[in-house]
Amino acid sequence: MNDLQNRIAQLKQEKNAAILAHYYVRDEVQEVADYVGDSFYLSKAATEITNDTLVFCGVSFMGESAKLLNPGKKVLMPDKTADCPMAHMADIHRIQNLREQYNDLAVVCYINSTAELKRYSDVCVTSSNALKIVKNLPNQHIFFIPDGNLGRHIAAQVPEKEFIFNDGCCYVHADLTAEQIKKVKNTYPDAKFLAHPECRQEVLTLADFIGSTSEIIQYAKSDAAKEFIIGTELGVLYELKKNNPDKTFYPASPALQCSDMKKITLEKIIYVLENDANAVHITDEESIQANAPLERMLELSR
Ligand code: 13P
Ligand code: SF4
Question: What value, to the nearest 5°, has the Cα angle with vertex 48 and ends 10 and 218?
């Protein structure tokens, strides 16, 4: 262990803290984390961890969700400016207008959203449970926020329901084009293309497998293929390479990097643990309203 890793281990003990990290953060941050996973795994883990303090190595909506699900715990964010632009890309007035228009409307909110948007939603979903949850909702009309790409991907698999889409997107995934994928496929004709559903439809139609980050990691591990083109943020390469030393992974594009996730560093983890800094605060009123759709997600995905 180097000096930074030693200091983190010491602080974790002193503060009775656990470190949670998303697959998109830097390799060295994933290495010191106690729990590494996709958004669903992390939100579920946050409800089960008994430590007093959670250090959330990810973007603000992840820390907010952990705090909403565990109001009694201290949730520290190594960099409070690490935010997901897509989390803000929906309009509360549009939600209210649509509720007036359709009396059976379900507002389905991707967990990549602010606590404020969650307050106005009926149920949260992540990329790994959205299909199951939407299928099981009794509602006929679904307003899917904020990600238009994930919404369309789910809608295609639930033709019996009527979807209203929102035009938010994740710039990291949405910038990927079909042209780029065709080029990489030509270079590596034996490789399977694995894509995250935040990618555009034209990209998803070229995929051999579409799934959340942990589903992509699971697929690469269990599939017989030896080469894969990775269509999601490149932080997943750390876990992919660790699990599959005999397999080769090619980035679909070198630009698949989330600059907010990469803001998290070991030095910042040490700083927040030493100073109890950047604690997530949510008012009681916000907490009650925004927690309900998250709890409903956990319940419906059981
Ligand atoms: P998942 O963790 O559900 O794969 O979502 C990816 C993502 O964009 C997180 O910011
Ligand atoms: Fe947001 Fe995209 Fe970054 Fe995930 S990868 S945090 S969706 S910008």
Answer: 90
